[in-house]
Amino acid sequence: IRVDVGTYNENVLLNKDVTLAGVHSAPLPAGQSIINGGGSGIVVTITTSNATVDGFTITGSGSNPLADGGIVMAGVTGCLVQNNSVINNSSAGIGLQGANNNSILNNLVTNNYVAAIGLIASSGNTVKGNNASSTHLVYIPASPGVSEQFLGYGIVLDENSGYVSSGNTIIGNTISDNTSDGVYFGEGCNGNNLGWDPVLSVENPNTITTNDRTGVYFWRSGSNMVKGNTMSANTFSGMHIMGSSGNTITGNTMSGNLENGLLVRAGSISSTSNIIQNNTITLNNIGIKLEDSQ
Question: DSSP for 37-62?
């Protein structure tokens, strides 16, 4: 379905396996076919597998930061979201919920809230060539049994009700100027690739820079491959490994971060058997800091 240049004030439900194609200009996505949610709900909801959204500007979601968003893919597989400009939404720019084996390619995702790109209980997805930047902060105070949260990620992988995000490939992205971590791996989100393309067996590094907290944060997440990335000028650490084991951290550059190049901590759960080798760690306040880790 070809959509001409213009502004379309509506919320779109894509429930058929079709290609929705707008008009955009290269090299950066600058969709001239604009879908504006008018401050209500999710702008584009994808509920069918094997659908494509290509070449739009998607903006103007509702105001609920934990429910609304630019593009939300729910329980689908084989979908393609590419060449879109997803801007000025009050929750995640692009959110996957229980969605596996989809591709998120070459999108400009900026000036949203919570996260530019969120993978929740979603596995086997490819997130490649995107600009995930300038996500605004949402602060959620602590409640009984739940710690306070600072949500303003570039890319976040997390679990939901015990369903985790694993086997995802995050390559060739620029992740910058977000108000929380550049990339966050939540509990049980194991076996993901950051900067390493397992299909082609080549590096395709991410640039993760000038984020307001940490460049890459692992929280109780293991067996991930982090290879060839640049993590620079982040406010806290280039990388923070917390209660996470069995990760491979190799060939990365961690430079100019205001606190640590690499921080490895244990807390109540050990951080053990992480392979950290052949990285360039320079011009940080502290290069490598280990706390209760092996």
Answer: -TTSS-SEEE-STT-EEESEEEE---
Q: How many CB atoms lie within 10 A of CB 280?
A: 11
| Distance from C-alpha of 210 to C-alpha of 183, rounded to nearest angstrom | 12
Q: Above 80 in pLDDT, residue 28?
A: no
Own/partner pairs for 137-143, CB < 8 Å, 24+ apart? 137/113, 137/179, 137/180, 137/212, 138/65, 138/66, 138/113, 138/114
Amino acid at 97: Q
DSSP summary character for residue 166:
-
Closest to 284 (Cα-Cα) out of 225, 229, 220, 235: 235
Taking residue 106's Cβ as centre, other Cβ atoms within 10 Å add up to 21
Residue 31, phi then psi, degrees to nearest 5: -65, 125
Alpha-carbon distances of 270 from 219, 248, 293, rounded to whole Å: 11, 16, 6
Burial-class residue 111 by CB neighbours within 10 Å (0-12, 13-18, 19+).
Answer: middle
* pLDDT for res 43: 98
Query: For residues 292 and 275, is the Cβ–Cβ distance under 8 A?
Result: no
Angle 131-122-167 (CA atoms, 0-180°, nearest 5)?
A: 85
Give residue-wise pLDDT tens across range 221-256: 999 999 999 999 999 999 999 999 999 999 999 999
CA 178, 290, 170, 99 torsion: positive or negative?
Answer: negative
Q: For 94-149, how does the pLDDT look when each residue is reduced to its tens digit (9 = 90+)? A: 999 999 999 999 999 999 999 999 999 999 999 999 999 999 999 988 988 888 88
Give the whole-angstrom CA distance, residue 184 versus residue 118: 10
d(CA 131, CA 163): 27
pTM of model > 0.90: yes
Cis peptide before 141 (omega within 30 of 0): no
User: Is the separation of the CB atoms in 150 and 192 below 8 Å?
Assistant: no
